[in-house]
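INTERNAL AUDIT FORM
Audit reference: QA-55
Scope: verify that the stored structure record matches its stored sequence.
Auditor: D.O.
Record contents follow.
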Amino acid sequence: MTYMKKVFSAALLLIPGLVFAQADQFSIKGKVGSLNSPARAYILYSANDQTTLDSVTLQNGNFEFKGTIQAPAGATITISHNGKPFNELHKRDELNIYLEAKPMVLTPADSIANATIPNSQINDDDKKLQAALKPSSQKYSQLYKEYRATSPDSQKSATFQKRMQEREDAIEQEKNVVELDFIKNNPQSMISLFTLEEYAGPVPDGEKIAPYFNSLSAEVKDSPRGKKYNIYISVIMRTAVGKPAPEFSQPDTAGKQIALSSYRGKYVLLDFWASWCHPCRAENPVVVAAFNKYHPKGLEILSVSLDDNRASWVKAILQDKLPWAQVSDLKYWKSEVSELYGVRAIPQNFLIAPDGKIVAKNLRGNELETKLEEVFNKMQ
């Protein structure tokens, strides 16, 4: 399923969290009516390279959460009015906010969804952005409802999928215009940095996003997250189309070192995957078909696995019947080659020409077949 990817389908790319150096304390207090036990407040947030779910029992409507964050962090506060566990809540009373490393106090309300955060510039900026994005969000919701109301058989129709994809793409373009406009007009806001990261996606085009990053204020760029993202942009710029593919050498399943340079003089598809990556496993038959068709014409494939378990890695190679060379340092997202190439999402690939330069990136499905046909037809 390639349509509705932004709205409701399972994530197709697995992305590691950003890591920062210093953690600071946050606290947030709130009051929701005069609720008492069994009513509970839950907070869900991602920080310090992990996701945290915490909860407290309300006392006369009051609750407080404390913790550590290394930078402003997105969080959701949810109130269970009847004390139901978090995973059993369906129609939720919740509020999305950004945590800051300072005491924060929500305005009292009968519903957490109606609470606000005074004296918080980052949350004010986010509120402004969400208001601008509301038309796009409403269109996404309507599209989702239409999809859910369609029978499973009709959902499989190529015509239905094409129509839904076209509508989603149009909404996404509208959303992108709003996001870029916000970034342009709010260079001093950390929300602009977060918005740029969301706009760029898990496989960004460095040349496209670098000017937007450079337009941000010095304070935003010099923040821990800003510095981290700046380094990331420089890495992906290094692996842009037309650049020489960075050299590396890693062990294969037998422990033999294989260097990328050993493929010089041939077209090689550098493929990043892992046994635990379901989208990668789903894409493998496409890559196998491409190898079978174009290997006789000179195509080579070198796969880099982000596994951390050798047995699982080898088992997946055998199960998916991958006949080409496989390497890995078994360091998961700390893979030296993935860091060298700025790979933060898989599956991902780079097509490298005989002269060692990158000629295409992120060729998935039919795109891989189309590009390889173009390349090898020119060689005839």
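Auditor finding: record pair retrieved intact. The chain has eleven helices and 14 strands.
Action required: none
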